[in-house]
Amino acid sequence: MAGILFIISAPSGSGKSTLVSELRKQVGGVDFAVSWTTRAPRGSEQNGNEYHFTTRETFLQMVEEGKFLEHAEVFGNLYGTARASLDEARVAGHDLLLDIDVQGALQVRSKLPEAVSIFVMPPTPKVLRTRLRNRSRAEGVVNESELYRRLHEASKEIENYREYSYILVNDILDRAIAQLEAIVLAERFYRNGEAIAYRSRRVLEVAAACLQQNSQERIKPVLEAFGILGSSGQQALPFGDDADDD
Ligand code: ADP
Ligand code: 5GP
Q1: 241 C-alpha vs ligand 2 centroid, how far in Å?
Q2: 2 C-alpha vs ligand 1 centroid, how far in Å?
Q3: Is residue 80 in contact with ligand 1, taking CB distance under 6 Å?
Q4: Domains of the chain
């Protein structure tokens, strides 16, 4: 494709959709690949907007027909990126952003190794729980078992952070948005020689600081909080009932 392919992954509730929508308000020329899914619409979600909602039967038919660049089962539902999304971005000469899980990211990177991958981490399990719960409340459906399923999956997903080029910790929203924007502008600068005006040096510094190899100190407390990097080598218990977050 002419533009750059950005892959963004994160545990559910980390703020990935929020970051993507803010990025697209601030940076032009970035298309968002609307995925196909067999899960039911949530809250105010509209068909064709957040997702193309479909049946399992139609989804599997599309798999048979080779319509997906990648597809995966997440939380019992099927999700996939249509090849057509890449074609449309290519024709428009735009960058394309995929919001996909770690399994999908692996498939895309093996087919398109030039893709730029970004992993978003929530700062702590407690914050993640609060965000998931607040979102469910805003959507008028609080499903505790679904919430805990997503929380427990979070650690497993975060373990895959090493597969990604850039790491964002979505603690302070404005900072995370600025970091995401910097990554997009820096990649355009390095790959396409696109000018990034007077802010260029600062933008390049911000993006470089988010490279995985430069993020170790920043992400260490997050990994510890999620029980991935225990000083004793023992798995921590980050989802106990101790946190009084609501
Ligand atoms: P995801 O797309 O990763 O599942 P969302 O973007 O839906 O997550 O965010 C989950 C919830 O957290 C939403 O209610 C959103 O408004 C909120 N949120 C996202 N980022 C932040 C942040 N940095 N600080 C506080 N709340 C946030
Ligand atoms: P949600 O149901 O919360 O919108 O998304 C659940 C998970 O599915 C998230 O990790 C999200 O990134 C992932 N996802 C969304 N679309 C796709 C897709 O097209 N392919 C894959 N592999 N994962 C997706």
Answers
A1: 27
A2: 31
A3: no
A4: 5-225 (3.40.50.300)
User: Residue 30 and residue 134: Cα distance in Å, rounded?
Assistant: 28
Contact 185, 203 (CB under 8 A): yes
Contact by Cβ (8 Å): 104, 16: no
Please give the number of the atom of ligand 2 that sits closest to the Cα of 16: 12
Instruction: Round to whole Å and give the CA distance between 168 and 122.
Output: 9
- Nearest ligand to the C-alpha of residue 14? 1
Ligand 2 midpoint to CA 51 (Å)? 10
Place of tokens 């049946």: 55
Distance (Å, whole) CA 242 – CA 236 = 13
pLDDT in tens, 155-205: 999 999 999 999 999 999 999 999 999 999 999 988 877 666 655 788 999
169 φ/ψ angles, rounded to the nearest 5 degrees: -105, 110
Residue 149 phi/psi, 5-degree rounding, is -65, -45
Structure confidence by residue, pLDDT tens digits, 77-122: 999 999 999 999 999 999 999 999 999 999 999 999 999 999 999 9
Q: Is 103 in the pocket of ligand 2 (CB under 6 A)?
A: yes
Of 131, 157, 179, best ligand 1 pocket probe by most atoms within 8 Å of the beta carbon: 131
* Concatenated DSSP letters of 31-45: EE--EEESSPP-TT-
Strands 95-99 and 5-9: parallel
| CA–CA distance, 48 with 66 (Å, rounded to integer) | 20
CA of 32 to the centre of ligand 2 (A): 13
How far from each other are the two terminal CA atoms of the chain, in whole angstroms? 46
